[in-house]
């Protein structure tokens, strides 16, 4: 790359080109809707002001990941005083603590990977677990509070937010309520998110009144792969866990790649600054692998140590060809994908991890292009042509991979670009590389 523009600026430019515009702005009138309360964890409060048909001393909403063998439960929200009217408070509190679901119900849309809930209702010594939508509706009785209306809409598959007045709110209308809610209405070609005004009657019936598309998008940050890598796919209890387990293995394999790169650079007499940067990248990849192992475990992933067959020191041309494909294309594109994941992953831990990893991978990409600038003048014209062919082949491979379908759970939880977004990223990336070469 002979352009003076730094790689990080080029990647930020490609990312901005690839981000889809927000559609709308003159559709649904959201004025007049009252804000929805948030919990201390910035999640929608479904229990604030709730008035079920039978009063209770204590109500708790618990949340857990669906479709896992041993779901880990957490209290999402609670109101009232636990076991305040019990004659045997210790037994009552034990019953609340041990409450577990037989089924569970989603609040909002639920794809292949979502969270389910149960309600724990305590009155006197009685502790009841409600874990079906039908049970929740019967427990609520007539819809006569905003919280009743929001729960009814969420049980109908609508997402109820609390932080954005343009996409969340409620207002009393006649004998019922109108609620602002959203849904994903297209997973690809393009990815679309739609805002709705839904009417919730006193009987709990939910009806769409208005709709407007508010987002329309044309749907892993992986390090350098070493020569001799024997691929062993990640495994996991969930698709997301298996994905991150695979990423953890590839990050660990990158440790081998940068160790070999530093050794070969020294063998061929590269400037000391390049070998030192290769060793620093090796240390980064050790940390990346450790972080990805933790993220994989969070989603039930089981990672495997990479297996790399030893290879002799490569010729300068072989090093240049590998650097052009693995570094100047794959690793540079991986940094771009990491930037995307840092922006779009639903899980805040994933966003934080990818923010740091994308920053490191961008630095590694700069190293790849610095090596390219050092090695090219030392090659014959025929060897330089072969290096360029390797780069074009890698760009073709990126474009081919970008056209493959992506599991919805990976798009949501890991922030992986969907098919249309990946195509746009790959196209803009290839054009930026061509313009800067």
TrEMBL record:
The keyword Oxidoreductase applies. Transmembrane segments: none annotated. One of its GO terms (molecular function) is ferroxidase activity. The keyword Ribosomal protein does not apply. Its EC number is 1.16.3.1. Keywords: Oxidoreductase. This is Ferritin. It comes from Sorangium cellulosum. The gene is ftn.
